[in-house]
């Protein structure tokens, strides 16, 4: 595809109101273009409309921003200038979030359980899955309203007719809250045979039914938008913002159905550099086409700090993580309300992309991934203390710190090639993929699962039977005889502490129990206690905490409590000890790189590449001393080279592994091993 080698992307946030005549009054297409050129952008996402619902083109059915009334062609002029300067253009359109149309059309509004929209009730009665505390600024239109849908389609027609552009990006494909409008009530009744419950209690059948309704209804709407565009422009790539598949809970309804409507995926995500890496792996895995798109804000930490810009090293670090995964980076800036841009920002972005350019031609190959993290997008239940998203995020950091090659997969991605698959805290909403997970184990795979959310899967693979949940939330995991070495010094007398309820199960007769649950001296409802400040271990049990079971040609490891969710080093080590004790595999890559270095490796037909990133959150990156890398190449290579300089690197070859030492690592390096 034409976008397959466009890695330097940009978006200028333009969610600007028009109640003040100064807003966007100084907008200049020429200034905008000059800044894009300065930043070395080759793919620009440009606003055609915004969350405010104001359009930046002459619209017959919507409302054009007042600043463009004198010259309705300003954005069209910008689009044309970009294309004349070999910059591809992606048009931005906001779905669901449309304050102007929300205000104009009361019947289009998403309605909360109190009978009002969240904008009507100013700050709403329900928690929003959007990051702003000023929720009253946002008007939500319901995708189940047929009139709103027809409005969206009509605006798509207007944009396709008015602009000459290359791709479409649709933002906000998720439910900010549960909607109780007439259309949702009717559709819910059609789907489920009864009305949507006014009160939804966690972990009830109705609770999961409502979540599934949201996935299905949002998926239908998003697919209809893609289909409508493709009917007019079959060749136009479509991207829907997929950030909420990671950033929000399952209640937002953004999952595989949204991904199915995209030609490639991407999204704007925030948080630690480890989160950034996890998102890159997941996006790369599920995207139909490459490169996936990873967005980051040039503001620190996000756009709400309008004048605080990330340092060059901070930008390069974020860029490097995406580079290591062969993704496209889209840098988000925000326009000044009057319509100007800070040109100094674009000097810095240009410097950062200049750093990337020499590496772009090497973005190829198949990822070397020994372990797979199975991310359950339907298992992001916010009210639960531990869910798939949080466990997978911590797991990703654990494997990075251990220098273990891994990928992130899920229900729409391949799992067969992983020697070990880790699927933490899956919920019953993931049952649709049970057959594939069972087949994976039957065919010789090693699967780790935790909890009993997906009870059918756990019981089938372990032969165990779920009985109840513990009353206690302060529990302990005690290693059984013969397994002390796995638990890093924790014993029956001094077991591993864990906060959280656990399922009580009766282990299958062929299961090997690695650890059991130990309880505090007293029940949580008892006034008496053993120690006033804590609940030390006092009652041993034979209730299994960790078991291993053979199933078909493979094995399953089940943990009652998600050890993988804990960020303490002791828990990380214990988790890896358990995995390694069952898999006993030799990894494709080994290294003594420190915790804050990520290695991402690829294999081409006659070569391997290893990308090394420093995951440093500081304003100035702290260089990392040289470290050793061992990569399984099977054959002795002709050479090892540092890219892009092609400088030769000394190496040795032993037992199928090519071994070399890096230079001092400052942000990012790439090494090529030619066979």
Can you give the mean pLDDT? 95
How many strands?
Answer: 31
Q: What is Rg?
A: 26 Å
Largest sheet: 9 strands, mixed
Helix fraction, binned, reads 25-40%
Strands of the largest sheet, in order across it?
Answer: 13-12-14-15-22-21-20-17-18
Please describe what this structure looks like:
- The two termini are 29 Å apart.
- The strands form six sheets. The chain has a nine-stranded mixed beta sheet with strand order 13-12-14-15-22-21-20-17-18, with helices on both faces. An eight-stranded parallel beta sheet has the order 7-6-5-2-1-10-9-8.
- By secondary structure, it is an alpha/beta fold.
- The longest helix has 28 residues, at 205-232.
- Mean pLDDT is 95; it is low at 123-133.
- The chain is built from 15 helices and 31 strands.
- A hairpin with a 3-residue loop joins β24 and β25 (607-614).
Notable characteristics:
alpha/beta; single chain; nine-stranded mixed β-sheet; 675 residues; 15 helices; eight-stranded parallel β-sheet
Element layout with pairings:
Layout: E1 8-13, H1 29-38, E2 43-47, E3 54-55, E4 63-64, H2 74-84, E5 88-94, H3 99-104, H4 146-162, E6 167-171, H5 182-192, H6 205-232, E7 238-240, H7 244-247, H8 256-260, E8 266-268, H9 273-286, E9 293-297, H10 312-324, E10 328-334, H11 343-356, E11 366-367, E12 371-374, H12 388-401, E13 406-409, E14 420-423, H13 434-442, E15 446-450, H14 455-462, E16 465-469, E17 474-479, E18 496-499, E19 503-506, E20 512-520, E21 537-551, E22 554-559, H15 569-583, E23 589-591, E24 597-603, E25 607-614, E26 628-632, E27 639-643, E28 647-648, E29 651-654, E30 657-661, E31 668-674
Parallel strand pairs: 1-2, 1-10, 2-5, 3-4, 5-6, 6-7, 8-9, 9-10, 12-13, 12-14, 14-15, 15-22
Antiparallel strand pairs: 11-24, 16-19, 17-18, 17-20, 20-21, 21-22, 23-26, 24-25, 25-31, 26-30, 27-28, 27-31, 29-30
Helix pairs in contact: 1-2, 1-11, 4-6, 5-6, 9-10, 9-12, 10-11, 13-14
């Amino acid at each position: 595809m034409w976008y397959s080698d466009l890695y330097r992307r940009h978006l200028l946030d333009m969610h600007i109101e028009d109640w003040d005549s100064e807003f966007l009054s100084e907008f200049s297409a020429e200034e905008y273009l000059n800044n894009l050129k300065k930043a070395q952008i080759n793919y620009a996402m440009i606003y055609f409309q915004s969350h405010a619902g104001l359009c930046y083109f002459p619209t017959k059915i919507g409302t054009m921003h007042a600043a463009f009334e004198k010259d309705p062609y300003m954005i069209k002029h910008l689009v044309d200038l970009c294309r004349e300067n070999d910059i591809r253009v992606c048009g931005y359109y906001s779905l669901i979030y449309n304050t102007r149309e929300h205000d104009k059309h009361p019947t289009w509004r998403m309605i909360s359980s109190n009978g009002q929209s969240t904008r009507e009730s100013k700050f709403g009665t329900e928690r929003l899955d959007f990051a702003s505390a000023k929720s009253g600024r946002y008007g939500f239109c319901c995708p189940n309203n047929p009139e709103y849908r027809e409005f969206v389609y009509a605006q798509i027609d207007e944009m396709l007719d008015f602009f000459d552009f290359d791709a479409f990006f649709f933002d906000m494909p998720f439910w900010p809250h549960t909607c109780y409008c007439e259309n949702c009530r009717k559709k819910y009744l059609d789907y489920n045979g009864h009305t949507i419950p006014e009160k939804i209690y966690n972990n009830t059948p109705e609770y999961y039914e409502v979540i599934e309704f949201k996935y299905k209804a949002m998926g239908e709407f998003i697919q209809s938008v893609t289909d409508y565009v493709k009917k007019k422009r079959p060749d136009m790539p479509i991207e829907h913002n997929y950030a909420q598949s990671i950033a929000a809970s399952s209640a937002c309804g953004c999952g595989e159905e949204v991904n199915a409507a995209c030609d490639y995926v991407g999204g704007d995500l925030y948080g630690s550099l480890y989160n950034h890496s996890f998102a890159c792996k997941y996006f790369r895995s599920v995207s139909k086409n490459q490169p996936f798109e990873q967005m980051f804000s040039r503001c620190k930490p996000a756009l709400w700090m309008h004048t605080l810009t990330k340092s060059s090293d901070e930008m390069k670090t974020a860029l490097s993580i995406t580079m290591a995964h062969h993704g496209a980076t889209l840098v988000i800036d925000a326009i000044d309300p009057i319509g100007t841009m800070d040109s100094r920002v674009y000097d810095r972005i240009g410097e950062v992309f200049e750093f990337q350019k020499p590496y772009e031609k090497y973005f190829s190959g198949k990822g070397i991934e020994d372990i797979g993290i199975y991310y359950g997008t339907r298992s992001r239940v916010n009210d639960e203390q531990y869910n798939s998203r949080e466990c997978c995020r911590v797991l990703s950091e654990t494997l990075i710190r251990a220098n273990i090659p891994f990928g992130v997969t899920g229900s729409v991605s391949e799992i067969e090639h992983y020697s070990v698959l880790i699927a933490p805290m899956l919920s019953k909403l993931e049952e649709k993929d049970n057959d594939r997970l069972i087949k994976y184990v039957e065919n010789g795979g090693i699967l780790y699962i935790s909890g009993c959310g997906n009870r059918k899967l756990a019981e089938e693979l372990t032969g165990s039977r779920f009985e109840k949940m513990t009353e206690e939330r302060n529990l302990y995991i005690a290693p059984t005889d013969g397994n002390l070495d796995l638990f890093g010094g924790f014993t029956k007398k001094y077991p591993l502490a864990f906060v959280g309820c656990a399922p009580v199960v009766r282990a299958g007769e062929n299961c090997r129990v690695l650890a059991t649950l130990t309880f505090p001296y007293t029940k949580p409802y008892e006034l008496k206690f053993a120690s006033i400040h804590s609940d030390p271990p006092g009652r041993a049990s034979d209730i299994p905490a960790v078991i291993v079971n053979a199933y078909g040609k493979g094995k399953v490891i089940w943990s009652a409590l998600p050890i993988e969710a804990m960020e303490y080093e002791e828990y990380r080590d214990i988790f890896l000890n358990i995995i390694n004790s069952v898999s006993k595999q030799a990894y494709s890559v080994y290294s003594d790189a420190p915790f804050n270095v990520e290695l991402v490796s690829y294999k081409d037909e006659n070569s391997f590449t290893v990308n090394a990133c420093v995951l440093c959150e500081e304003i100035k990156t702290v260089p990392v001393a040289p470290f050793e890398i061992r990569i399984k190449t099977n054959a002795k290579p002709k050479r090892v080279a540092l890219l892009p300089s092609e400088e030769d690197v000394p190496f040795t070859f032993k037992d199928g592994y090519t071994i070399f030492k890096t230079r001092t690592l400052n942000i990012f390096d790439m090494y090529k091993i030619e066979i």
